[in-house]
Input
Amino acid sequence: MFIYQTLVRVRYAETDQMGFVYYGHYATYFEVARVEAMRALGISYKSLEDSGIQMPVTDFHIRYKKPGRYDELLRIETRIEEIPSLRIRFNYTTFNEQEELLNTAETELVFIDSSRKRPVKAPETLLSALVPFFHPNGI
Amino acid sequence: MFIYQTLVRVRYAETDQMGFVYYGHYATYFEVARVEAMRALGISYKSLEDSGIQMPVTDFHIRYKKPGRYDELLRIETRIEEIPSLRIRFNYTTFNEQEELLNTAETELVFIDSSRKRPVKAPETLLSALVPFFHPNGI
Amino acid sequence: MFIYQTLVRVRYAETDQMGFVYYGHYATYFEVARVEAMRALGISYKSLEDSGIQMPVTDFHIRYKKPGRYDELLRIETRIEEIPSLRIRFNYTTFNEQEELLNTAETELVFIDSSRKRPVKAPETLLSALVPFFHPNGI
Amino acid sequence: MFIYQTLVRVRYAETDQMGFVYYGHYATYFEVARVEAMRALGISYKSLEDSGIQMPVTDFHIRYKKPGRYDELLRIETRIEEIPSLRIRFNYTTFNEQEELLNTAETELVFIDSSRKRPVKAPETLLSALVPFFHPNGI
Output
């Protein structure tokens, strides 16, 4: 399993009149979280896209436990729990500064060859960066 | 079952560099869809909030089939499939102008007494507006 | 002068924890307003872009008088006060349902040939649609 | 004069189908920039608001020179060029990673007593934090 922590500061623009982070903005926070998780693996999503691979989201599910609030530095734990093939799943757990659980979520993304508009397998660079986290004993 | 159709025009602000509606914006479209569905039932969400009832989202799940695109007039079908009690579920199906299915989604919301910050039952005005759609034969 | 009225309903997503429309969202409302103003002239911005003309904003200025609020149906008056050439200016005045003035604003946009990435003159279709509003006496 | 630098990473959510940062999102970036500038002065905007002072924006003007792009780490230089009284002005200059000038902008904000909904003078804590930057010789 690959785990990565990302900190995201809540912007005023992202609050709503309940005084909470609007429920739709977590999609953006998770975009930041998975892009930073991939960067930590040595994979720039921008470079991936420039090389002709796009990764649209095909499924997003979030369960809200507590609201995020303005100016909080949220901690998002991002996990890749299985080696991707045609699809990649990211699991997210969001905590506030008091380490209270705010929500849990998952996204599923596919790999698309942007010139042929067709699904393709996960790029080799991503797979080889992930392998060490799934075979920790080198077996 | 209560069903309502809402049209939402895709704004340039809501597209991303793939040329698609960014996956997080559907949360906002579904907010519009359920608020308009409630308005059609005679319930203003704004009045509900002014009267002390807030409805935060506790669960959101969306499965993306095809992307929405700039300037399309999306048609969102919103359904309330069961009489709410402590929670209310809305189901959504989004179509583009060619009547292609873009996605299906659900949200679950709770009713909160905003002064006491406690869950409460669905307000009577909402329940009585919904009842005719669930007992169509008057039985 | 060409004048057009657009109605925009404030979404919950667009409020902030002050209970007001976040100041940055008016840029999106004005995008909606000018696109609808152009559509009323028979010009689809989407078609314009598909035909190779992009219109990025080069200047945006807004003076806020009163805040917009959730669920209000804002009325935006959009004006084109002079025939465009290399640039087009839109002037906006926003009112709430009580006809209170919320803000006044202007945007300046240029016409870009998207293949050559070069500024070009306003397209003929736009100019000929605008002319009648600037020579009302047919002179 | 008080000057502060803030880095903001462009999110995919903030791009549009031109492949650029949507023009309205700079309002949010400048919110981040001025809040971080104030934090560097020892002033938390959140604490200010909790203590009963709100700072709505009354004027925003931006001149776009070049577009921002996905994943760029934008550098925003924020300047307070004069001691605030009833109003505070922030000036912003945005650069990309190649140190190209993307835009220049200003915002004007007022101080509001949130219980009485009345304008008030800049809080003493802010003034005393700013004074050293305007009288560098201690005269």
